[in-house]
Amino acid sequence: MKQYNIDENGYYGRFGGAYVPEILQKNVTELKANYLKIMQEPSFKTQLDQLLHDYVGRPTPLYLAERLSERYGAEIYLKREDLCHTGAHKLNNALGQLLLAKRMGKTRIVAETGAGQHGVGTATVCALMNMECVVYMGATDVERQYLKVQRMRMLGATVVPVHTGNGTLKDATNEAIRDWCCHPENTHYIIGSVVGPDPYPDMVARFQSVISDEIRQQLLQQAGRSKPDYLIACIGGGSNAAGTFYHYLDNEEVKLIAAEAAGDGIDHPDRSAATIHLGREGVLHGSRSLVMMNDDGQIAEAFSISAGLDYPGIGPLHAHLAKTGRSTVYAVTDQEAMAAALELTKLEGIIPAIESAHALAVLPKCRFQSGDVVVLTVSGRGDKDMNTYADYFKL
Ligand SMILES: *Cc1c(COP(=O)(O)O)cnc(C)c1O
Q1: Measured in angstroms, how far is the CA atom of residue 72 from the centroid of ligand 1?
Q2: pLDDT (tens digit, 9 = 90+) per residue, 150-194?
Q3: Which ranges in 188-333 belong to alpha helices (H)?
Q4: Residue 46 belongs to domain spanning
Q5: Residue 3, domain member (yes or no)
Q6: What is the value of pTM for the model shown?
Q7: What is the pLDDT of residues 368-386, one digit of tens each?
Q8: Which of 23, 3, 22, 24 is nearest to 14 (CA)?
Q9: Per the domain annotation, does 7 fall within a domain?
Q10: Any residues with Cβ below 6 Å from ligand 1, and which?
């Protein structure tokens, strides 16, 4: 049998690993030595489970979307991560890492954010747990996402605008890493997706795996079987998809479908974020994966109408799943995603995040057979995207 999950060296096939400068070696090694041990402590699990339940609002519903099902000729269930506190799946991971950092004796948190969602999630759990919080954000993104900056500040975080490069996510990530290097003793770096050096991809996937753990139980109760025929999720770095797939990775009867953001389309590589379709193998932010590069090997800016999906890399797990054929990856254009968002809104009364709309846009591309059971993760809610929707649909 093929191995899809991480191996003992921190690799998914040939992807993953920890490509970090000497100065970060100690931080990464300390984390790797502790994360599994702490996550398996009964008192840690009890505390995390209770907060996921009472604070985040888990379990999130698994909702049988009847009108959507009728439209596509399959039984379509929506996993409602949009109903989590702060509006997306991000808190599952931010909360887990924060509790872990506390147990490692850390007193200060740094994070990077692009669209602002992970920054808000991190600032939220830091307020909850009374931790110092510094969020690095590209100066361009600070301007584009000002409401999120205000939310983070109200929550007590220090938001540091980063003026290097294009002032976007990868510049913010570099600064967060630099900060972590300078304060290894007291600081933990909360990465927001299944990216970064080993052990981050595995740690984040485990924190997000609460999604597929719940799907198994809820599907058994509601559909009389714990195995769907299809699992569908969108991919930026890949954390909500990793959480959705996690407990089904080795069950090859379950088809894993990922939706990445194609922007204007994969025939416009300079206006796209379709990393799996267009990326080349390389190292970005500490791990080997697929990366969007221009012809001389420089990291390219990714483009998508969805600010949460325009990352030029992809988690190493997803590079491996795609290259081994375990997952099928569709590149979804802005136009297709926006149409899918409107369709869900009209059919089910749910306004999804534009990120999640990319997953919905895959439905017409799959050829379902009647009776197929499909679980699609709605990673977040659309409130944050209302300006974009209003402009696009001239509301
Ligand atoms: C951040 C975000 C994403 C993309 O991140 P992944 O790590 O790929 O899950 C997707 N959807 C929403 C709503 C987000 O906030």
Answers
A1: 25
A2: 999 999 999 999 999 888 888 899 999 999 999 989 999 999 999
A3: 200-208, 210-223, 239-245, 275-278, 316-323
A4: 19-51+90-203
A5: no
A6: 0.98
A7: 999 999 999 999 999 999 9
A8: 3
A9: no
A10: 88, 90, 117, 193, 234-240, 308-309, 353, 355-356, 379-380
